[in-house]
Write a structure and sequence with these properties.
The structure holds two protein chains of two kinds. Chain A is an alpha/beta fold. Chain A has 15 helices and 13 strands. Chain B has three domains: about 290 residues, no CATH class; about 120 residues, no CATH class; about 60 residues, Arc Repressor Mutant, subunit A, CATH 1.10.10.410. The chains are: A alpha/beta, B alpha+beta. Chains A and B meet through helix 9 and helix 10 of A and loops of B.
Chain lengths: ~475, ~500
């Protein structure tokens, strides 16, 4: 079955052939029939029909709404006014946000309709969507397997055709890895390109909102309106937003580097094959290739986990059960022994195992006596990694690498293999550490029929080259 | 006697609430609000997904404070997160500055006053941070009330070197700080209301020693007098400890105002690991040199400079200069009166002194009685200058001047118009008085005869009669002169 794309539906909406409401109804039915199997959505938005009707009315009144007809799933870490926001955590069970994330607000302002919240790992920490109070989201290609994470629900929803576009967040690969596992496109934009206002912070210096979709055009359409400076986010870029939907660079003018550090000997052949296949397609389009080196790549995973956990330990300090969120039942009784115990009980009951592990790790690396040994060194390593990219982008425009060292694995098989799972973020974390854009593009399947992706990376604010090459990789002539 | 052998060494940490309209990192109002939890928003309450955006005005205010205290200003500094768990701290961390405060290495010279010789306090740093909310322990064992109105209000924290040597110096320094922040317009500087707060680090050492002793930190001092009393108490306590061979432990103490003692709050062992790191939500704070230059140029004349100028250029006494410069608004009002006198070509040492007297006594008293702020005092300096001119020319008496000021509160008329309308002019004009003088002499031939035959004390009788006949307040000396002149003329006729 071919998934519906926004690009096609948009034409029909503009031609008056389809109403936004009817598109929404189609997806609501898809969710009703498919979501039980994959658990991608954790709820369906009660206001979606009303929102769709309003868009139809606005269109009838002649309002120009470039995203009219776009049906969007939103990862449960993006705030929406008056809607529940749980971050897949007991800590925020029952919490309702009082404001809307800028990324979502901007899509809605252009006519997009939010259909519901998508499943994810708790506070976006994880790469399998198994750390969720809502239960794991499942891979539509094989529901016994993980869909990846942390934006697993978003990738699964798009892959299963439950919405046109889903928003995820990418701190160390959380958009790109599930996109690869589910056979969809996932873009992590340049840091600061899309406002983080309303995105629940995991690691503020690494977090990015990113779109997941089935076509490059749909990714570009969402990007076009989410990107841009936001006075509510001091780290959002003031750079002008270029055109992502057209006039992209001719692939033949681009030079692509293959960084040898991204190709360990033990990579599965399916992954190597996907990269080779991509290289072949791009070469046919006139792209020139270079072998390049990013020597500090091996520092990536440890650098990432030290910095991300350090920031997380700070960002999640606010979840204490004082002003909002869950309070442990015991903390409200006489058994609670003072304020420290009140905090300990609320946080012990509210957070899941993986979140606690990262908070402990992060607290440790920021502690007096360990800061210099871990946090300060990780910051220095981050600069080295960034310098590697700066240098390599002097000679090439884009890098081609694997996204993941494996394809989707069976649910429940990684519980005791925490470090190994962390290591698998090796290809994705570097883009976050450097703040550069990267896109995950589906290229065929492995021997078991599971999707395989490749990753394209470029220098800051050069999303256009990524979209151009992704478009080339997925062009009709290349679909065989 | 004991204090003679030991020297007190004190450094202060002064927290100053900045008088911005909105909070340090969010657009919600930073003003005081009686009702709890009104000035709050997702940023202030630390809601998931909310982000801090720095308030440029607060940055400007702290730069002003730094420039006015001779600090160097860092062109690039950073915000850092200071972590601790407490219910009135919504995010579990306070956004502050750590290794690179905006302002550093300044110096404040406190001029000599009647009870304290001149002294210098070096400023270690001034940094910008956000205030916490308030925990209200309402007497219940099981509940605490929380008010987040204050959470996120911008604070400048000023840290001094351990340069203060007496409790009274601390008092004088804080009074200067209050005057300074008010002059700069960056804070209300009110200790009772908490817009100025002070913690003190205190140690003692034998006189002549340069080593620093073990220090304690005193918190919870809510007025300048509390600071002075707490330091005095702690000085004695530490001396006693040394003499009794008791160890002074590094600890945080609370000033117990009821018992007038310091009490232990926590020891160094319980001290927090704040886990400072740069706030990744906030880009480096980069101060544009031109922006900084504009702020430098816009700084008002500082109170001590102004007082010195009043003495040296205007010839006022030290006392007058101090009183006039205590509040910037009073000093500036006074200067506007002088400017008006200057426009009228009436500015000289006498009119300056007269203006100073009017502002120091009458204007301040009347403002007080009517609960008016000098900055919104309804009497135009031009009007007051008119009154000064009348006073210098002795055309109105000092009691008449007070009445004129009262009337001016509700009137735009000039001092002269009011004096005429209310008949408050001291009559010096002979034209008005001579007919009365002649009439009194004509009406009292017997007394005239006695006077002319030598009973000169009768002059008082004639003066009294003239004064009574005149509906107003003629100058008795003028009346006396006119009478003597007329009587002499009669004698020669």
């Amino acid at each position: 079955m071919m998934n519906r794309t926004f690009e096609t539906d948009r034409e029909k909406v503009l031609d008056g052939v389809l109403s936004v409401e009817s598109i929404l109804e189609y997806f609501l039915q898809r969710i009703a029939s498919e979501n039980g199997r994959i658990n991608a959505f954790i709820d369906v938005d009660t206001g979606a029909r009303e929102a769709a009707r309003r868009v139809d009315v606005s269109l009838a009144e002649g309002t120009d709404l470039p995203l009219a007809g776009m049906i969007v799933g939103v990862k449960d870490v993006l705030a929406r006014e008056g809607k529940p926001l749980s971050c897949a955590s007991n800590m925020l069970a029952g919490f309702t946000s009082v404001f809307t994330a800028t990324a979502v607000e901007r899509l809605e302002a252009q006519g997009a309709v939010v259909i519901g919240r998508t499943n994810c790992d708790e506070f976006a920490m994880g790469s399998s969507n198994e750390n969720s109070i809502h239960g794991p989201a499942r891979n539509p290609h094989d529901t016994d397997r993980v869909c990846g994470g942390s934006s697993g629900g978003s990738a699964a929803a798009v892959a299963a055709g439950l919405c046109h576009v889903a928003l995820g967040s990418d701190t160390g690969g959380s958009v790109r890895q599930p996109a690869a596992f589910c056979g969809t496109i996932g873009l992590k934009p340049t840091y600061g390109r899309i406002s983080r206002s309303g995105l629940v912070a995991f690691a503020s210096s690494l977090d990015c909102v990113g779109p997941i979709a089935n076509t490059v055009g749909d990714v570009a359409a969402a990007m076009q309106f989410m990107a841009g400076h936001d006075p509510k986010d001091a780290t959002s870029s003031v750079n002008e937003v270029p055109n992502y939907r057209g006039g992209l660079p001719d692939p033949g003018t681009l030079r692509v580097g293959i960084p040898n550090e991204y190709f360990a000997d033990d990579l599965p052949t399916s992954i190597l094959r996907a990269v080779e296949q991509s290289k072949g397609r791009l070469k046919e389009a006139g792209v020139e290739f270079d072998e390049v080196s990013l020597p500090n790549t091996p520092l990536g995973v440890s650098t990432y986990y030290i910095l991300a956990c350090a920031e997380a330990s700070s960002n999640l300090a606010r979840y204490d059960g004082v002003r909002y969120g869950s309070r442990s039942s015991v903390s409200q009784t006489d058994e609670a022994n003072g304020i420290a115990d009140f905090y300990a009980r609320n946080r012990t009951a509210g957070f899941g195992e993986e979140v606690k592990r990262r908070l402990m790790l992060g607290t440790y690396v920021l502690s007096a006596g360990y800061y210099d040994k871990y946090y300060a060194r990780a910051q220095a390593a981050r600069r080295l990694i960034k310098n590697d990219f700066d240098k390599v982008f002097e000679s090439v425009d884009v890098l081609l690498t694997p996204v993941t060292p494996t394809t989707a694995y069976p649910i429940g098989t990684r519980k005791d293999r925490v470090l190994e799972t962390y290591q698998e973020d090796i290809f994705t974390v570097t883009a976050n550490l450097a703040g550069i854009p990267a896109i995950s593009v589906p290229i065929g399947t492995d021997d078991e029929g599971l999707p395989v992706g490749v990753q394209l990376l470029s220098h800051h604010f050069n999303e256009r080259s990524l979209l151009a090459l992704a478009g080339e990789l997925l062009s009709e002539s290349n679909k065989r | 006697m004991t204090q003679a052998e030991y020297e007190l060494v004190v450094g202060l940490e002064v927290h100053c609430q900045l008088k911005t309209r909105s909070k340090m990192f969010s657009p919600v109002s930073a003003e005081f609000c009686e009702d709890p939890n009104v000035h709050v928003d997702p940023v202030v309450l630390g809601h998931p997904g909310s982000l801090p955006v720095p308030n440029e005005k607060a940055i400007e205010y702290v730069a002003r404070l730094g420039l006015a205290t001779g600090c160097s200003i860092r062109p690039v500094s950073h915000f850092a997160r200071k972590h601790y768990f407490y219910p009135d701290l919504p995010k579990g961390y306070q956004i502050s500055q750590f290794e690179d405060p905006i302002c550093y290495e300044g110096r404040i010279e406190i001029p000599a006053s009647k009870d304290e010789p001149e002294f210098v306090v070096r400023i270690t740093r001034i940094h910008l941070e956000e205030d916490a909310g308030k925990s209200i322990h309402d007497g219940s064992d099981t509940s605490t009330l929380l008010d987040y109105n204050r959470a996120g209000v911008p604070l400048a924290e000023l840290v001094t070197e351990p340069d203060i040597r007496t409790p009274h110096q601390a008092f004088v320094f804080l009074k200067y700080m209050r005057q300074l922040v008010r002059y700069l317009g960056v804070s209300d500087g009110n200790m009772q209301e908490g817009s100025l707060r002070c913690d003190a680090n205190i140690s003692i050492r034998p006189k002549g020693s340069t080593a620093l002793g073990v220090k304690t930190e005193i918190k919870n001092m809510n007025s300048f007098r509390h600071v002075e009393a707490a330091l005095g108490y702690e000085f004695e306590r530490q001396i006693d400890a040394l003499r009794n061979g008791t160890e002074i432990i590094q600890e945080t103490l609370l000033w117990d105002v009821d018992r007038q003692i310091t009490r232990s709050m926590r020891s160094k062992e319980d001290s927090h690991d704040y886990r400072y790191f740069r706030d990744p939500d906030l880009p480096p704070l980069v101060l544009n040199p031109e922006w900084l230059e504009r702020i430098k140029v816009s700084l008002p004349e500082l109170p001590t400079t102004k007082a010195t100028r009043f003495v040296e250029q205007l010839g006022l006494s030290d006392y007058d200069a101090d009183v006039l410069t205590e509040e910037r608004e009073t000093a500036e009002y006074f200067e506007r009166v002088l400017a008006a006198l200057d426009r009228d070509n009436s500015l000289d040492q006498v009119s300056t002194k007269n203006a100073a007297n009017l502002v120091m006594s009458d204007v301040r008293r009347i403002a007080n009685e009517h609960s008016l702020e000098i900055e919104s005092f309804p009497i135009d300096p031009e009007q007051l200058a008119g009154l000064v001119v009348l006073r210098v020319a002795s055309e109105v008496s000092s009691s008449a001047a007070q009445r004129i000021i009262e009337i001016m509160l509700d009137s735009n008329m000039s001092a002269h118009e009011i004096a005429v309308q209310q008949n408050l002019l001291s009559v010096t004009s002979e034209d008005l008085l001579i007919p009365l003088v002649r009439q009194v002499i004509d009406d009292n031939p017997k007394q005239v005869e006695q006077y002319l035959s030598g009973k000169e004390t009768l002059i008082g009788y004639f003066i009294g009669n003239v004064m009574r006949m005149f509906d107003g307040s003629p100058d008795p000396q003028v009346v006396r002169g006119l009478l003597q002149e007329e009587l002499e003329r009669r004698a020669t006729n």
